[in-house]
Amino acid sequence: MISLTKKKRCRPGLLGIEKLGIIYAAFTAVVAAMFYNYIPSIGEMAITRAGYAAGMTALILIYRKRPCHLTFFLRIALQLGMLATWYPETYLFCSIFGNLDHVFAQADQFIFGCQPALLFCQILHGKIWSELFNMGYFSYYPMIFFLVVWTFFRRYLLFEKTSFIILCSFFIFYVIFMFLPVAGPQFYYQAVGIETIREGIFPHVGLYFRDHFDMLPETQYGGLFQHLVEMAQQGGERPTAAFPSSHVGVSTIIMILAWKADRKKRVFIGLLPFYVFLCCATVYIHAHYAVDAIAGFLVAFPVYQISHKIYYTRAFHRPHGYHS
Description:
By secondary structure, this protein is mainly α. Helices cover 69% and strands 0% of the residues.
């Protein structure tokens, strides 16, 4: 077990994960400046980046004053915690472009002969199934948190690498979402009407989601996890980020990291049921089309490889001895 507050050798300069966060913040700021006429909250974005820079600077100064495992953890935790801020911004960018949900709904219809996002919850109906799938969906961020904390305490030399790959993977998905405006069934079905979807008609809604955020009402089975998912969606869900599914993609990357980090595979086995229900839940609760989920799984492997290679580039990677 590591000692959280025992003084360690101070690691100079920025961490690779901090450089990655700065690059993403700068990139999105440049894109926002290019489209500033279409982004009403560009001032808030500037304030967010100022706060991000201030927070990162403060943690770096604290770390230099007291270099230890705890202050090192806090520096990385800030970068991962900022994902909650970066995600909603993808909507500000993708809402500039015409919505493409009709294309992906048609793809589901062509491949499966139906709308899996509409029928899945009708086939496996009832409170037990609803709670299992909602539990899986809600487990997304707890799975990430668990793996990061587990590597910190049990595989410390993998902690920074694991955190970097997770953050880099999210950023790759977020860049895709910025320029690929797909809201997902929970927004699209509500916008055009369930009866229209049942008839196999998939209208093009253009810029509709620039001003509309209504979602399909959840099935009224009740239950703890359904309530938790509803709260999470009401608090931060936007008509964005449907294709490819980052829930499926990043959770698949979490499973890859868990497989590689634990020789006995206990972490992988422990996370596996949550992973399976999470992947299925993306379609079950209408968050994604089936093609979104499939694409998320397939894209996860090259995204992992890209993130892994970026971590080991000279610009981002430092030997573990700097902070061991």
